[in-house]
Design brief:
Shape: rod-shaped
Number of strands: 7
Largest sheet: 7 strands, mixed
Number of domains: 1
Structural class: alpha/beta
Radius of gyration: 24 Å
Strand content: 25-35%
């Protein structure tokens, strides 16, 4: 599992900018700007199933330090985010002041996701089913952490970026301030939730769960 983050900027200049109503004061035009908007969305979770690789290759993929431990299933995913920004700015007619409100949209995802099942299990349906059921538990943890992280981001993002219209000498400064705030906040947010993800996935690989899967192999 790894974290992938991207940041895309789309600047939208409002119609009430420099070429807007010349009779309206700067403060009046700033007051007509929309409120800052923060949208957090979750990409649908889906996975592909790969049963082409032998157990030895899956063991290497799992990173297990126990050479005697044979891995028959591995689930991998990329926990990532993609951010789009729209800024509605207003500046006064001599270019000495600017104000603006952002719209920030963050999409969290766990894609691509792959469930690997050892190719040797193709001839043993019961063992394959026991392994697959274990890996599906990992898929559900990915899904649950994604939803929990999205709810946390909805709560935190306005405070991290600024829930009030911004002021600066030029609208360009507002854009840069917004980008810097997101680049400072989002990587740490993703790292924190990556740790949560790792902890919850480790909980799936409990002694009780290994005993259940091992019992299927022993049977």
């Amino acid at each position: 599992m790894r974290v992938a983050t991207t940041l895309a900027l789309c600047a939208l200049v409002a119609a009430c900018g420099r070429d807007g109503n010349p009779a309206a004061s700067f403060e009046t035009r700033c007051a007509t700007l929309p409120r800052p908007r923060f949208d957090v969305v979750v990409a649908p979770v889906s996975f592909v199933q790969d049963e082409s690789r032998p157990s030895a290759e899956l063991t290497a993929m799992s990173g297990s330090a126990l050479t005697a431990q044979r891995t028959t299933g591995v689930t991998t995913a990329v926990f990532g985010q993609s951010t789009d920004i729209e800024l509605s700015p207003v500046d006064d007619h001599d270019g000495a002041r600017g104000c603006g409100t952002p719209r920030v949209r963050v999409e969290l995802s766990m894609q691509p996701m792959t469930v690997f099942i050892a190719s040797e299990l193709a001839e043993t349906p019961c063992l394959r089913e026991a392994t697959l059921s274990h890996e599906i538990r990992h898929v559900e943890v990915f899904r649950a952490v994604l939803e929990d992280a999205a709810r946390a981001l909805e709560r935190e993002l306005p405070g991290a970026v600024g829930a009030e219209p911004g002021r600066a000498k030029r609208p360009e400064e507002l854009e840069q301030r917004l980008i810097l705030a997101l680049r400072s906040y989002l990587p740490q947010f993703m790292a924190d939730w990556q740790r949560v993800l790792d902890q919850r996935q480790a909980g799936v690989d409990s002694p009780e769960e290994y005993a259940r899967v091992s019992a299927a192999f022993a049977g």
